[in-house]
Known about the structure:
binds guanosine-5'-monophosphate; binds zinc ion; HIT-like; Histidine_triad_CS; catalytic activity; Histidine triad nucleotide-binding protein; HIT-like_sf
Amino acid sequence: MDCIFCGIVQRAIPATVVAEDERIMAFPDIHPKAPVHIVVIPKQHIESIAHLEENHSDVIAAIIYAAKRIAAEKKLEGYKLVFNVGRLGGQSVDHLHLHLLGGWAKPGDGKKGFNVG
Ligand code: 5GP
Ligand code: ZN
């Protein structure tokens, strides 16, 4: 399978890992769309939110908690958590991922020209 994010999990593709446990990995987005832009992924290859099954509940919870912890570590006062789903939803990498976006200087900066994907 030719999946960029599986390649990062396997350390075949380099990334600066900012959080990792048995279920998840997080690293900065290569093309950041906010001052802080981290991608949180399951280590397991799940294509998208549209491909989620009941037994994936734990991994989805782990992704959201990881994003919450990273946001706290980076002292983000407010942030956005975004799942792009499918091509029409702006998804370009077919390995489920949560975008953590934040670090804008002032309230309102994040609303101006904001777009993911
Ligand atoms: P999507 O558009 O699928 O929601 O988000 C995929 C994200 O992955 C994009 O924002 C893109 O910049 C990022 N990305 C694609 N390839 C790489 C890579 O090799 N390394 C990292 N760190 N990010 C990547
Ligand atoms: Zn994958």
